[in-house]
Specification:
The chain is of the alpha+beta class. The protein folds into two domains: about 130 residues, no CATH class; about 325 residues, Porin (Beta Barrel), CATH 2.40.160. Helices cover about 20% and strands about 45% of the residues. It has eight helices and 17 strands. Strands 1-2-3-5-6-7-8-9-10-11-12-13-14-15-16-17 form a 16-stranded antiparallel β-barrel. Strand 9 and strand 10 form a beta hairpin. Helix 2 crosses helix 6, helix 3 runs parallel beside helix 4 and helix 4 crosses helix 6. The longest helix has 16 residues. It is globular, with a radius of gyration of 25 Å. This is SLH domain-containing protein. Keywords: Signal.
């Protein structure tokens, strides 16, 4: 396993050298199970022409980009043995994992170098047994630990009926560390730092919001059991998932999440507590209890559906009756890809929330929330010059939508035009403008963003 052992060289470059590490997605980052690469490399492996890989990848086996790059690199070394169609697939994979393969090749060269000869030529010494053992331990450690993250500069402003206000003017640095216990279990520690430049809310905090300064620390464990059919995630983490509750969710979550399904159909069970900013928007809850059951099924490569139910604490900021205890939500979300350029997402969500007895709550609309998004192309962090354009419409009544999603204000409807662009590998620039109105009062609440992100 010369390629795997040579990973120690990469860590030397990252932590000891003056060369900047390649940008995200990280070398050790997991390739999502839904990614096309799994089916593609399995098709190549079954031909028998991929050296060192005689068995197809097991169903449900999660691979890192490093592992996937190894398979593609081996296929590239024997390219002429494949049919023209298979060669096209290999070339597409090579383009997708180009920089990862370059790292593999660089590390292989480092590993193949005669280190003892180099040491002799340099100072007349050789590696001792202890030094060799230390190198092996370093290589083993490098194979188990992965680090990725990003640095973000964000500038958000509201344009309200009362004038212009700043929502966020901040820097956010996130470093995510994963320790691979074995092939099935990982331990994660995600450390973040936020610093607000707005000047109006420079509060120190162990859980900083957009306009606070402080650090965050999330620790959790992930793993797979039952021959990869059952997945577990337990601890505290930031949950961002475009499929969460039918739309998307961005919140701090503490609890447990299970996913089941060895084939395409997946079932997700989540239970714990989360921060949905109730206390920051007029309510009194810092954390809400939640239990959810979600289902996901991709019909084919172009179509998938996500649907489910959830029960979460009634929130005063959503004009919900606190005596109700928990509110029951039900939703569905569908996604269709037209071609390489266009894709569409639509969704609907509703609830059995009861209004509280305040005069304001009696004026608020109670109807299903809706969402539709059309996207052209898409920014790819590994493809400089790539870009994406999205147009989104959201209708989010507070009584039927559990969270304030995608930077849509409480009880609002909006149209948003967004553009993202990758000027260089691992650098993402994005901006959007949102034409937003409060559903029942019509009050203006436009928002616009300028943001730069640097992934590593």
């Amino acid at each position: 396993m010369k390629k795997a052992l040579a990973v120690v060289g990469l860590f030397t470059v990252i932590f000891c050298g003056g060369v900047q590490a390649e940008a995200a997605p990280g070398f050790f980052q997991d390739v999502p199970l839904s990614d096309w690469s799994y089916e593609a490399v399995n098709g190549l492996i079954t031909t028998g022409h991929v050296n060192d890989y005689t068995e197809p990848l097991p169903q449900g086996r999660i691979m890192s980009r490093m592992e996937m790059a190894m398979v593609v690199d081996d296929a590239m070394q024997n390219l002429k043995a494949f049919t023209p169609a298979e060669q096209d697939t290999i070339q597409k994979l090579n383009k997708e994992y180009y920089y990862d393969i370059k790292k593999i090749q660089m590390l292989s060269k480092l590993d193949n170098a005669d280190l003892e000869k180099a040491a002799n030529e340099g100072n007349g010494t050789t590696f001792t047994k202890e030094e060799k053992a230390g190198l092996k331990k370093a290589a083993a450690f490098a194979d188990k630990v992965s680090i990725d993250g990003y640095a973000r500069l964000r500038n958000d402003h509201y344009q309200k009926d009362t004038g212009k206000t700043t929502r966020a003017n901040m820097v956010h640095v996130q470093v995510n560390t994963t320790y691979k216990v074995d092939d099935n279990w990982q331990v994660h520690a995600d450390l973040g730092y936020r610093n607000s430049f707005s000047g109006f809310d420079e509060l120190k905090s162990l859980s900083p919001s957009e306009n606070k300064t402080g650090t965050t620390m999330d620790t959790y464990v992930t793993g797979r059991m039952a021959d990869n059919a059952l997945g577990l995630k337990v601890g505290k983490w930031n949950e961002w998932n475009i499929y969460g509750w039918g739309m998307d969710i961005d919140c701090d979550f503490s609890g447990v999440q299970l996913d089941y399904g060895k084939k395409d159909f997946k079932t997700y069970f989540t239970a714990g507590k989360m921060d949905l900013w109730d206390d920051a928007m007029g309510g009194d809850r810092e954390y809400e209890q939640v239990t959810s059951l979600r289902f996901f099924y991709p019909f084919d490569k172009k179509n998938d559906i996500n649907f489910g139910v959830s029960w979460s604490s009634a929130m005063a900021s959503r004009y919900q009756d606190p005596d109700q205890g928990r509110v029951f939500y039900y939703y569905t979300h569908a996604h269709h890809t037209f071609d390489n350029n266009w894709n569409l997402r639509v969704g609907v969500i509703n609830s059995d929330a009861k209004r509280d007895d305040t005069a304001t709550a009696s004026t608020k609309t109670k109807s299903p929330g809706r969402w539709i998004q059309l996207q052209y192309k898409g920014a790819n962090l590994q493809a400089p010059g790539s870009y994406g354009i999205t147009t989104t419409y959201r209708y989010e009544p507070a009584l039927t939508w559990p969270t304030v999603t995608d930077w849509c204000g409480l009880n609002e409807r909006f149209v948003r035009l967004g553009v993202s662009w990758v000027p260089a590998k691992g650098i993402l620039l994005d901006t959007f403008y949102t034409w937003a109105r409060e559903i029942d009062t019509g009050a203006r609440d436009d928002m616009y963003r300028f943001q730069a992100q640097f992934f590593f």
